[in-house]
Design goal:
By secondary structure, this protein is α/β, with parallel strands linked by helices. The longest helix has 18 residues, at 219-236. The protein has helices at 7-20, 23-36, 55-60, 77-85, 129-142, 165-176, 190-200, 219-236, 241-256, and strands spanning 44-49, 68-74, 92-97, 116-121, 145-159, 203-209, 212-214, 261-273. Bound molecules: S-adenosylmethionine (SAM). Residues 2-5, 10, 17, 50-52, 55-56, 74-76, 79, 99-101, 120-123, 126, 181 line the site of S-adenosylmethionine (SAM).
């Protein structure tokens, strides 16, 4: 059963997503596109998988050279409609309402000289290893650059510390591995797995941390996130549902008092076809707690 995402949730997370994403990887992608396109007038083709309501488009399009032709693909027609109505909608040449649970959708074959970027955000932790293997093979066949942002990596840290934190995190991370419509999900392994598969196909790969740092100014997102975690943890360990619920209540009290802070780890991964070498302003790996 494919996952549907609430437009309100996607709007709530967008500012935190934009603040967390790696600009160093976008800069490297920008340099690649400028170098490989046939002429400065040649359009850059961007294929956005699981585009939702266009958060990735709004973040990435201003960081890449113009002209750009975006294709947005998602199984949710209403989200795509919102993406095309919003900022950045002028870049969208095609929207495809498609359920790609059975396999990655067919990628475009741009004419020679037109660079292709295959991108997505907050998607890969939902997919299976087999699904991602097929996507990477299709990207490699076309010499496409690959940028997948915001794959959750299993790190959740909350302050002040609570005795229920470790059990909650472990249950959430087990739930992450359950089928989200694509077969057993990669969950927190997704970013590392993508990086390895791209290297196997000869890509030059860079990975960066993309950490949500949620303090009192992002209380709405923190609160919605905790509700989701309590539900996921309770689904995977029903016997501990009451303990997880109490954990959520204690955390919410911290947030209501303006004391609580949540840090959530994600990975951004960029793969550039190997023959291109670019200086990435190398991001340092840092702990969620740093
Ligand atoms: C967490 S949301 C991320 C949306 C957007 N990329 C962003 O960063 O806000 C995951 C997206 O994947 C889409 N999705 C999930 N399963 C899908 C499937 N089987 N086929 C097509 N799209 C799917 C959802 O509709 C949703 O828009």
């Amino acid at each position: 059963m494919s996952e549907h995402f609430d437009a309100g949730w996607l709007s709530l997370r967008e500012p935190a997503d934009h603040a967390a994403r790696s600009t160093a990887l976008a800069d490297a992608l920008d340099a690649w596109a400028r170098q490989v396109r046939a002429t400065p007038q040649t359009p850059l083709r961007v294929f956005d998988l699981g585009a939702g309501r266009g958060s990735g488009l709004r973040w990435l399009a201003p960081r890449l050279p113009e002209p750009q032709h975006w294709t947005l693909v998602d199984h949710d027609a209403e989200l795509l409609e919102a993406a095309c109505r919003g900022a950045g909608g002028e870049y969208v040449r095609e929207r495809r309402v498609e359920d790609f649970a059975a396999g990655p959708p067919p990628l475009p074959d741009p004419p020679p000289g037109e660079p292709l970027v295959v991108t997505g955000s907050a998607l890969l932790d939902l997919v299976s290893a087999d699904w991602l293997d097929r996507l990477v093979a299709a990207c490699a066949e076309r010499g496409a650059a690959v940028l997948f942002a915001l794959s959750y990596d299993g790190r959740i840290e909350a302050s002040p510390a609570d005795h229920g934190d470790a059990a909650l995190r472990a249950a959430v991370n087990r739930h992450q591995l359950t089928d989200k419509g694509f077969g057993p999900a990669l969950g927190p392994r997704a970013g590392e797995y993508l990086a390895r598969r791209l290297e196997d196909h000869g890509y030059a790969v860079e990975m960066a941390d993309a950490v949500w740092d949620l303090d009192a100014s992002r209380a709405g997102l923190a609160s919605a996130l905790m509700d989701g975690w309590v539900a996921a943890a309770s689904a995977i360990e029903p016997g501990r549902a009451a303990a997880f619920r109490e954990w959520g209540e204690r955390r919410r009290a911290h947030i209501d008092r303006g004391e609580g802070r949540l840090r959530v780890g994600h990975r951004d991964v960029l793969g550039l076809p190997q023959k291109f070498s670019v200086e990435v302003n190398r991001p340092t790996r840092r702990s969620v707690a740093s």
